[in-house]
């Protein structure tokens, strides 16, 4: 009934740079199980005999602390396993013993990085790739803040930790807007950890720390700049396509980039007069008039007429029928390229820097400038304001909105 616990570098999943995941291997009753630590290490910096990180390693800020954490985790798990065996659980396999021991010790759940990594994987499985990317950005942010040290526990994220993180972020020249994104994401993760019994409510740091707000400025093009964009032509296909993607979002009532990418022939009515779709971000259903300007842009981008687009075919030449994760990365990469091209366009046309996202803001502010009632729109476009704006727009009904859109687009 002997058990063996040993730290090993798992050779089955070596990264391209040679790093391997550090795992605690449990051997019991001729069966084995591996317990993840959340760390990736190089064989050159790991002492397999002593089961510790070599003092020469630059992987973490404090090697001694790292090794002490490993010893502590191993000892706690060992005590938990022997306690389970003494209570009559000797019939379990190594995997079953591991699962019960982890729940008993709470070591796995108490680790901020391990919990966050599991959340990222769960989000990917749920096809919530945008939130998964936000969590991954937070993972890297905190990892860099701690100089690669991944031994962080939730109770260590206190007021001082958050204040220091804020100070380092701002000292590097980053703004309050991006700081707010990281802090709100961290707050969401901490709240999830509390709900899952991973973190304790009494340790919650956001009772003392207040996330600083910034006056976010959304760049909306003026009517003159929109006309300048419409009248422009670029010999470079990259620039011309980027311009068309921006204008398409504008003429599709400020449609979000992802929603444009996911549009299929089935979203277009049989008479080619309307587009009906469900916004990916909110799950809300929209029906918008399909104006000639949008039709012409789609035909230019896709190289075919609207009538040739099959019901199950994507309207724009961005996606194929690839797996969701690949599609998510393809959309993100394409958006980056479009934004890079829009920056060049702005330089050539003497327009302040703008991105594909601002087409939504340009659409809303253009409506206001064109005399649309203020009850239908809001000038600022933050996340909540976007939802509010769309609610106001929908409350007027399709016919009223079609009229305002038609008047504005014709003026251009």
Automatic annotation (TrEMBL):
<dbReference type="GO" id="GO:0006310">
    <property type="term" value="P:DNA recombination"/>
</dbReference>
<dbReference type="Pfam" id="PF13102">
    <property type="entry name" value="Phage_int_SAM_5"/>
</dbReference>
<protein>
    <submittedName>
        <fullName>Site-specific integrase</fullName>
    </submittedName>
</protein>
<dbReference type="GO" id="GO:0003677">
    <property type="term" value="F:DNA binding"/>
</dbReference>
<dbReference type="InterPro" id="IPR010998">
    <property type="entry name" value="Integrase_recombinase_N"/>
</dbReference>
<feature type="domain" description="Tyr recombinase">
    <location>
        <begin position="216"/>
        <end position="405"/>
    </location>
</feature>
<dbReference type="GO" id="GO:0015074">
    <property type="term" value="P:DNA integration"/>
</dbReference>
<dbReference type="InterPro" id="IPR002104">
    <property type="entry name" value="Integrase_catalytic"/>
</dbReference>
<comment type="similarity">
    <text>Belongs to the 'phage' integrase family.</text>
</comment>
<dbReference type="InterPro" id="IPR050090">
    <property type="entry name" value="Tyrosine_recombinase_XerCD"/>
</dbReference>
<dbReference type="Pfam" id="PF00589">
    <property type="entry name" value="Phage_integrase"/>
</dbReference>
<dbReference type="InterPro" id="IPR035386">
    <property type="entry name" value="Arm-DNA-bind_5"/>
</dbReference>
<keyword id="KW-0233">DNA recombination</keyword>
<dbReference type="InterPro" id="IPR011010">
    <property type="entry name" value="DNA_brk_join_enz"/>
</dbReference>
<dbReference type="InterPro" id="IPR025269">
    <property type="entry name" value="SAM-like_dom"/>
</dbReference>
<keyword id="KW-0238">DNA-binding</keyword>
<dbReference type="Pfam" id="PF17293">
    <property type="entry name" value="Arm-DNA-bind_5"/>
</dbReference>
<dbReference type="InterPro" id="IPR013762">
    <property type="entry name" value="Integrase-like_cat_sf"/>
</dbReference>
């Amino acid at each position: 009934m002997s058990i063996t616990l040993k730290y090993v570098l798992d050779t089955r999943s070596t990264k391209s740079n040679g790093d391997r995941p550090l795992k605690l291997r449990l051997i019991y009753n001729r069966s084995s199980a591996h317990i993840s630590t959340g760390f990736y290490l190089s064989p050159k910096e790991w002492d397999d005999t002593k089961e510790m990180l070599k003092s020469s390693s630059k992987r973490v800020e404090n090697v001694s602390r790292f090794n002490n954490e490993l010893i502590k985790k191993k000892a706690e798990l060992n005590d938990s396993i022997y306690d389970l065996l003494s209570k009559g659980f000797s019939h379990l396999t190594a995997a079953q013993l591991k699962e019960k021991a982890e729940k008993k010790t709470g070591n796995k759940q108490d680790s901020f990085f391990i919990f966050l990594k599991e959340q990222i994987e769960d989000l990917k499985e749920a096809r919530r790739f945008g939130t998964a990317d936000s969590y991954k950005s937070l993972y890297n942010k905190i990892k860099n803040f701690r100089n690669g040290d991944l031994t962080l526990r939730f109770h260590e994220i206190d007021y001082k930790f958050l204040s220091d993180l804020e100070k380092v972020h701002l000292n590097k020249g980053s703004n309050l807007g991006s700081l707010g994104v990281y802090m709100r994401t961290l707050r969401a993760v901490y709240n999830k950890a509390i709900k899952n019994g991973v973190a304790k409510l009494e340790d919650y740091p956001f009772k003392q720390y207040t996330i600083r707000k910034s006056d976010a400025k959304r760049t909306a093009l003026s009517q003159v700049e929109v006309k300048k964009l419409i009248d422009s032509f670029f010999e470079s296909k990259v620039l011309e396509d980027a311009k068309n993607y921006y204008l398409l979002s504008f003429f599709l009532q400020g449609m979000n980039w992802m929603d444009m990418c996911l549009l299929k022939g089935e979203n277009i009515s049989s008479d080619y007069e309307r587009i009906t779709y469900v916004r990916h971000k909110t799950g809300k259903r929209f029906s918008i008039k399909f104006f000639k300007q949008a039709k012409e842009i789609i035909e230019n981008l896709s190289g075919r007429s609207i009538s040739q687009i099959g019901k199950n075919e994507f309207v724009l030449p961005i996606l194929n029928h690839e797996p969701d994760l690949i599609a998510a990365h393809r959309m993100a990469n394409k958006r980056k390229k479009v934004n890079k091209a829009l920056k060049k366009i702005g330089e050539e046309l003497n327009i302040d820097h703008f991105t594909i996202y601002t087409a939504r803001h340009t659409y809303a502010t253009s409506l206001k400038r064109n005399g649309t009632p203020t009850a239908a729109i809001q000038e600022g476009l933050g996340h909540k304001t976007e939802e509010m704006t769309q609610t106001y727009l929908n409350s007027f009904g399709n016919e009223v909105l079609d009229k305002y859109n038609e008047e504005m687009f014709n003026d251009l």
